[in-house]
């Protein structure tokens, strides 16, 4: 049995032939991952194999139908159809905003209560929370992931709500502040990020340790160079050829701090100052950060 089973539902299942290439293809060959792609149209019953219909309330485009998705997902999840007496998203803004924090805590608790051997149902959605390295790390420990690829104007909002009501671990993620034609690209991105963290996937596990966004105090990775030391008149930083591993490590750490400060200052602001050593704090101060509090600030 593979360490992770992955089911992908799409109207273009052939798109995922790309997953047979490179390291993910090798991981499948080694039995670390088993990927199955399914054509959503196989669960339709009309002559046109329709998976979408016009939006309720009017508007442009088409919306993917819940009944087709439900037949497919019920089969993959091993669930029987249920009637849920509930109207979802009846109001856009809660009547009592004091309850918002409690609601978010409850949702987090619902996610946390599912064991790693429970399937996770994942829908890419540009309106959802951003998919992060922390999400990839957590999902890499799961045994069964099911991805649903939306198309057109997206999927009926009752689909994820129905399966949450069935106690399924349902996630919706965005991979960035832009809109794609469908969820296939987003699923491929998430799968690359998730599967490479499975034990045995990478030839050299150490290559993951210093990557961007890794760890609690995440930074962007330092710049990388290879031979020749001088290329078209451009030399690599001399410290990297000094043979002094301590100086090399410090140089790379300072470079990571400077690069992150310039490109992603939000990551610097999120650092825990109590976990930074004296040299880290000195480097940040030189970059214009105040490190006297719990987190760096300008």
TrEMBL record:
Residues 4-84, 117-269 form the tRNA methyltransferase TRMD/TRM10-type domain. Pfam families: tRNA_m1G_MT. CDD domains: TrmD-like (cd18080). SUPFAM superfamilies: alpha/beta knot. Gene3D superfamilies: 3.40.1280.10, tRNA(m1g37)methyltransferase, domain 2 (1.10.1270.20). Keywords: Cytoplasm, Methyltransferase, S-adenosyl-L-methionine, Transferase, tRNA processing. GO terms for molecular function: tRNA (guanine(37)-N1)-methyltransferase activity. GO terms for biological process: tRNA N1-guanine methylation. It is found in: Cytoplasm. S-adenosyl-L-methionine binds at residues 150, 175-180. It catalyses: guanosine(37) in tRNA + S-adenosyl-L-methionine = N(1)-methylguanosine(37) in tRNA + S-adenosyl-L-homocysteine + H(+). InterPro entries: Alpha/beta_knot_MTases (IPR029028), tRNA_m1G_MeTrfase_C_sf (IPR023148), tRNA_m1G_MeTrfase_TrmD (IPR002649), tRNA_m1G_MTases_N (IPR029026), tRNA_MeTrfase_TRMD/TRM10 (IPR016009). GO terms for cellular component: cytosol. It comes from the Bacteria. Its EC number is 2.1.1.228. Its main location: cytoplasm. Specifically methylates guanosine-37 in various tRNAs. Homodimer. HAMAP family: TrmD. Belongs to the RNA methyltransferase TrmD family. This is tRNA (guanine-N(1)-)-methyltransferase. It comes from Bifidobacterium magnum. The lineage of its organism: Bacteria, Bacillati, Actinomycetota, Actinomycetes, Bifidobacteriales.
């Amino acid at each position: 049995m593979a360490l992770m089973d992955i089911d992908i539902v799409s109207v273009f299942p052939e798109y995922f032939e790309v997953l047979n290439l490179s390291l993910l293809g090798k991981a499948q060959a080694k039995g670390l991952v088993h990927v199955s792609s399914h054509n959503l149209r196989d669960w339709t019953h009309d002559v046109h194999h329709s998976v979408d219909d016009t939006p309720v309330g009017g508007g442009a485009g088409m919306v993917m139908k819940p009944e087709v998705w439900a037949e497919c997902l019920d089969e993959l999840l091993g669930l029987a159809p249920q009637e849920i007496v509930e109207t979802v998203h009846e109001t856009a803004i809660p009547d009592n905003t004091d309850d918002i924090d409690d609601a978010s805590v409850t949702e987090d608790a619902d996610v946390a209560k599912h064991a790693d051997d429970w399937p996770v149902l994942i829908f890419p959605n540009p309106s959802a929370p951003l998919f992060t390295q922390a999400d990839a790390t957590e999902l890499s420990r799961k045994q069964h992931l099911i991805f649903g690829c939306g198309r057109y104007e997206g999927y009926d909002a009752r689909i994820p709500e129905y399966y949450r009501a069935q106690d399924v671990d349902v996630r919706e993620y965005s991979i960035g502040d832009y809109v794609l034609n469908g969820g296939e690209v987003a699923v491929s991105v998430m799968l690359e990020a998730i599967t490479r963290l499975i034990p045995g996937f990478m030839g050299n596990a150490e290559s993951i340790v210093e990557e961007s966004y890794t760890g609690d105090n995440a930074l962007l990775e330092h710049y990388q160079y290879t031979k020749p030391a001088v290329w078209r008149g451009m030399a690599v930083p001399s410290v990297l050829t000094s043979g002094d591993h301590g100086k090399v490590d410090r140089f790379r750490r300072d470079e990571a701090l400077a690069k992150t400060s310039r490109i992603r200052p939000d990551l610097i602001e999120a650092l825990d100052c109590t976990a930074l050593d004296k040299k880290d704090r000195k480097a940040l101060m030189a970059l214009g950060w105040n490190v006297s509090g719990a987190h760096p600030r300008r």
